[in-house]
């Protein structure tokens, strides 16, 4: 009722004035502002039974929750917030990414003056690439960035981007009838604001905020708007509904969309390809022979999503509404999103229908044959004791995941579905434990309230931030920030393995670092590596008299090394959370039409490189601990990176956009391998063959980057590179380059150290290729770096911040995600390393 009253106050949030009207609902929503609260400010959530539903291993360090504050909302602050919201709404089709302005507004007392730097000059006159000028820009950038740091030491930021996450949460809370608890009126306003702000001009919604319209995004967003109280005749709803029906209706939504609509009873379970829970009853191995089809061998994100999905499919979950209004709305939705009458839909045909806009990974015929066979068996299995047995097994795994992540779960999709499993299983205590952890995933910016792709990127960003700040040489200016960051990293390291690892198909985790918080706890290879690198770097700061607190004990550093060594696969590379447990052929049964490479946890250049760098740094700190294993790891990892380099000199990036990101990691990984010499040969130093291969690979990578440098001195790669697997420049051609990708390119070139003296190798086999064109590269690289540095300083704002540009993160090939702190971390890092290079040169 309250939601519909709010909607009636204004027909749409299609302009700045409309957004303003939403806050003037005749007292329905008290005047206030959203504020971010971290760590100790949110330490308990006591239920009616007196039980604390929030559990933490380290006093909630890293937890970030947005609250609607009505007590400290002066009129000028409220007006400023509305102005930021209105500005985004009016420019939403040209600048689709929010700039985290609400966070910056809240942290303004700590980010310093607004005029640290002179006004931005014209394109023709840019800052000089000399040490004093760079130092000035670095000081401004560090002061601003340090002001964004939370009291517990991490840097909070927006980790949104995907458009299919919030609809899942809305449907789940609506079905469980806790939507008013999770989304009070101020939150509903922001959710609707977010959805409307990210509607495309054609009326549809994308898979992510910058993507083209898809049936998956449009149907779920439309349904979410209706569940939030938006009327069917709202202009945004009308255009979305037209988009859906023009493309055949909601039967053409992807399999994940079919699942969510079935949960809501807007779609029939008969139109869903089987999500058979009995697969969890298969043996993990037969007499010592691995069963590569067992879901325990899937990539953890994949299996942790399809695990609770299979339970809800197995019980044919259906809402238990007692409110007749909800059933009326469901019947109304059935008439709004389908072309034909609901009772006339051919559900068997609908199972494999998918809109062409969504079809990134088409089903191979073999997969359709598998679904047909399982569908034929479903009538036998559905009411059998085997189904009950399978559901109990799945429920045990769901409980294990909930309890060992403090009800955060590995990601937002399985977190919400696990919550529904506890609800439909009648485990209301477990269901209520999920509620306070929902807020860990919600983020508020000027574009509205979104659901993040994780409970944040706290550790990942903090590890990079420490390395960036350390590179600047501004140790006195950054001492307090580095001290707090070091404290956060020490408190975030995982201290023990989860229980019963083999029973629940988990990898060791003692000594690892997670992506976000210790309470989350899932170990990740590159997060562990970056955490170890950052902690080891503290020793260098201690040597120059900077107080960074107590160093990690050597035992915990060695625990991290043990975890990293355990991540190496048979091919020499490293995957993400676990070892590769099956084969690429298993992708034939990938049921998610819109995502690629989700079944197996593959080796990645980025993960492998990060682990190589960490082990290389550790071997300088402790040369004797498992030295043979470390040497073997580096040798095999180097071979993996060399094998995966493309003919054009690039590497494909799987977790950032895209070739630029991977080249940075590729060069860093190869640089981590010690250069071996075999004495002298003629006038030249005789390098080991592997060292020469690594140098040649880096040289080809740098030539690739030099060829992609843009006229303004920067680099700018489009997210289309990720899905098309071909380098794509950002559009339009006259758009400014991307500050993050420019930073990655500069860091790659400096790490490769392409200017090292190879001219003496000319004519000496097998080094002639390495020496060829060395003088040309030795000239081009410094010029390119100087141009990149001038671009970064030119783009910097007067207060020391950098502008938010297009999205720079990716997962599963086809879905983009935001890393909002990258815009500050990487320009600081690149300028810091460039300043050091200039000092060495001088």
Our Rg estimate from Cα atoms comes to: 27 Å
What is the overall number of helices?
31
Approximately what portion of the residues adopt beta-strand conformation? 5-15%
**What percent of residues adopt helix (DSSP H or I)?**
40-55%
Number of strands: 12
Q: How far apart, in Å, are the first and last alpha carbons? A: 70 Å
Pick out the low-confidence regions: 4-17, 19-27, 759-764
- What about the largest sheet? 2 strands, antiparallel
By secondary-structure content and strand pairing, the structural class works out as: mainly alpha
**Outline, from the CA principal axes?**
globular
- Strand order within the widest beta sheet: 1-2
